[in-house]
Amino acid sequence: ILKKKKREREPQVKKTTAPLPKLYLVERKMGRSRRSFLTELARSKGFIVEDVLSDVVTHVVSEDSQASSLWAWLKGGPVKNLPVMHVLDISWFTDSMREGKPVAVETRHLIQDTLAASPEATTPTPVSTVSQYACQRRTTTKNNNKIFTDAFEVLAESHELNDMEGPCLAFRRAASVLKSLPWTVQNLRVTEDLPCLGEHSMCVIEEILQHGHSFEVEKILSDERYQILKLFTSVFGVGPKTAEKWYRRGLRSFSDVLAEPGIRLNRMQQSGFLHYGDISRAVSKAEAQALGNIIDEAVRAITPDAILTLTGGFRRGKDFGHDVDFIVTTPQLGKEERLLTSVIDRLKQQGILLYCEYQASTFDESKLPSHRFEAMDHFAKCFLILRLEDSQVEGGLQTAEEDRRGWRAVRVDLVSPPVDRYAFTLLGWSGSRQFERDLRRFARMERRMLLDNHALYDKTKFLAATTEKDIFAHLGLEYIEPWQRNA
Ligand code: DCT
Ligand code: MG
């Protein structure tokens, strides 16, 4: 109701004697659905929007941040009036929509013809094109700036453990920008043009460039509180709050925790301690593959045409992970509802279910995505610990030399969305976390849309998608392959 009222109050284009500009929206980069949305929006506010680019157009609006390719495209077209047209970026359009009338064209709105300006400008340096959003960067598992990003991760974690979300996210963003660079930072000057690098991050980079390491980071790493909180949170089921509580009670080791009479561990934490050695050790690709076979067999025994997809870090091409994530669903809508519980029963019968926490679906399709960054979705899911036999893994298990058990425990997550939400779930669970954060932030800040693991909404309109590519297109984003999402 509120929204409707607000829309009614929005000012319409004022009647003036000056001729109204004739807009043309460039579909490249913007995508078809967004272009038609923006066209409708502008027309509803009284603007004239041309469907084709012709000489009557006065204002060309584009979301293509690459001036050179946009201009090359414009010049390749049939229009002769290009020199007198305004070629503008979307900020002019959004400003005008907000004002309800065409705002004056300012330099900051212009997409300059770099081809005409200077020959050097035609090949922009990579620095100037790095987006502040991880979903507009391509980040493979090859990290050329590990020495810096490792330091930033420590600073991020230390702030997270002290419940300081702002600086924590700032360091995560800084790390993520450096991870996307195809080159190694070798001097401070090159970082000046990079987004998301604040003063503090710059200081850390400078320290590392000068001394090979950061004193601030070294200090954190040798701090007792940091070490103990890291140790406690490495247990499955123990978050920063619990770790802090234990630390305040004076507990400093696992044996302190286990011997403390007043502490009652929940089921998850009990399993966490029981299988600590196994689940704190990385899971290999071969082990993930073996688990895929086990889950596939279980799922197919229940529903032959079920859909099983490996997601999470392994889908992004990582060689190791802390767990293995899968999406399971069925082609028939609604049939997925009983799928997970049946899979769990089957794994139990096979004697390989070491731990299971099942969460039934609380998904309500009439609900809009939350404005908050939600860590979890409402689909049915389960957090498991499974027993994986040596003989099931090609090349054998990842075990310690002295370990002769012939099996290991592995953390596995399964999520089961209805098939019409499969693409959103796949995109949401493929990660990385930073990539997900920035996808949602981009949707909200740049497109005024809402995205989460369930859906994408433009105002109150649900935008359907059967593939991840559909979602990127709705958002007017270039498609980023899963292995380029290691932000
Ligand atoms: N996810 C998210 N936000 C969270 C937690 C998870 O968006 N707070 C998404 C992104 C990754 C996916 O869920 C699976 O989570 P993890 O298994 O924790 O991440 P991962 O990338 O698979 O990392 P790892 O390789 O260590 O398992
Ligand atoms: Mg994972």
Automatic annotation (TrEMBL):
Q: Write down the Pfam families for this protein, in alphabetical order.
A: DNA_pol_B_palm, DNA_pol_B_thumb, DNA_pol_lambd_f
Tell me its EC number(s), please.
2.7.7.7
Q: Name the residues that bind Mg(2+).
A: D323, D325, D413
Give any single GO term for biological process. Answer: double-strand break repair via nonhomologous end joining
EC main class here is transferase
Cofactor(s) the record lists: Mg(2+)
Q: Which GO terms describe its molecular function?
A: DNA binding; DNA nucleotidylexotransferase activity; DNA-directed DNA polymerase activity; metal ion binding
Q: Which InterPro entries match?
A: BRCT_dom, BRCT_dom_sf, DNA-dir_DNA_pol_X, DNA/RNApol_mu, DNA_pol-X_BS, DNA_pol_B_palm_palm, DNA_pol_lambd_fingers_domain, DNA_pol_lamdba_lyase_dom_sf
Q: Where does this polypeptide localize?
A: Nucleus
- Lineage: superkingdom: Eukaryota
Report the GO terms under cellular component.
Answer: nucleus
- From the UniProt record, list the reaction(s) this protein catalyses: DNA(n) + a 2'-deoxyribonucleoside 5'-triphosphate = DNA(n+1) + diphosphate
- BRCT domain residues are 23-110
Q: What does this protein do?
A: Template-independent DNA polymerase which catalyzes the random addition of deoxynucleoside 5'-triphosphate to the 3'-end of a DNA initiator. One of the in vivo functions of this enzyme is the addition of nucleotides at the junction (N region) of rearranged Ig heavy chain and T-cell receptor gene segments during the maturation of B- and T-cells.
Q: Record's family?
A: Belongs to the DNA polymerase type-X family.
Q: What PANTHER family would the database entry show?
A: DNA NUCLEOTIDYLEXOTRANSFERASE, DNA POLYMERASE TYPE-X FAMILY MEMBER
**What protein is this chain from?**
DNA-directed DNA/RNA polymerase mu
| Protein source organism | Astatotilapia calliptera (Eastern happy)
Name of the coding gene? DNTT
